[in-house]
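We both want to read discrete structure tokens more fluently, so let's practise on a single case. Once you have written the record down, we can walk along the chain together.
***
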Amino acid sequence: MKKYIIKRLLWMIVVLLGVLFIVFVLLEFTPGDPARQILGVYADEEEVAAKRLELRLDDPFLVRFGRYVYNLVFRFDLGISYRTKLPVMQEIATRFPITIAIGVLGLVVSVAIGLVAGIISAVKQYSWLDKICNVFAVIFHAMPNFWLALELSLIFALYLKWLPPTGYKGLKYLILPVAALGLNGSTAIFRQVRSSMLDVIREDYIRTARAKGQSEIKIILKHELRNALMPVVTMIGNSLGAIIAGSVVVESIFSIPGLGNYMLQAINRRDYPVIQGSVFVLAFMICIFNLLTDIVYSFLDPQLQSQYQSNVKSKKRGVKA
């Protein structure tokens, strides 16, 4: 198991370096000059050239990329914002908890709704409950995050006046963003839970459990759901990336001072250090959650455990020989 985790950590480093390189390449070919954006359209060429020299934008591409990776690895430095002149790491640290809260709560809501609806739909297959769950799954799956967020804001903030429409002054302000992310993300989990549960329900050991007189709740939770969880765990890990990506748009709609809104503002202002740092932190967060998903999956999958245990035993035998 340790070898499996170490292997995943090494691949995570490769993925993060690849993400950084792609971001640098995209910014290199993006129209617009950060120096001109900072100084304004009426600045002369000499001022723009001096500003580019100050920001070290005239250095070769590989030099800038290598310097950024070096500062990140050895100094834990994400650069200085072109606009605010503050360290990017400091600004991200103030916004990161809000984005984490929205992403994690959105994932919890999507998992809770997806699991409950999937179990009910599978157990009550072809019933009116199953049809209602499938209809709502199709509706929420077809809705983009931004459109669902706008509709929730109109209904619960503008018309009913139950919740605040924008800003962030407490947990009450996170209800609508979390609901928008959770409802949209629950559809994929619902479909996977329903499909996996239907495959397990038809197995012989489920009939044997019923023949032994076990209660229906025990059969559903201990036998059906437990054996259907492995593909669901993978689906949850994949859904996290979509939820985090959706939080970038949702934060902008609800004017929440999170990492996503911070990054969108930086894109409009050509603030390269903020864009690079924000994308790196989001990619790192997704990689960490995917690593945790793989670790949980390795504990749930007996074949993966036996594979690594057999490899360890064979190596020990080779050493003894």
Notes: The first helix runs from residue 2 to 29. The chain has a mean pLDDT of 82. The chain is about 80% helix and 0% strand.
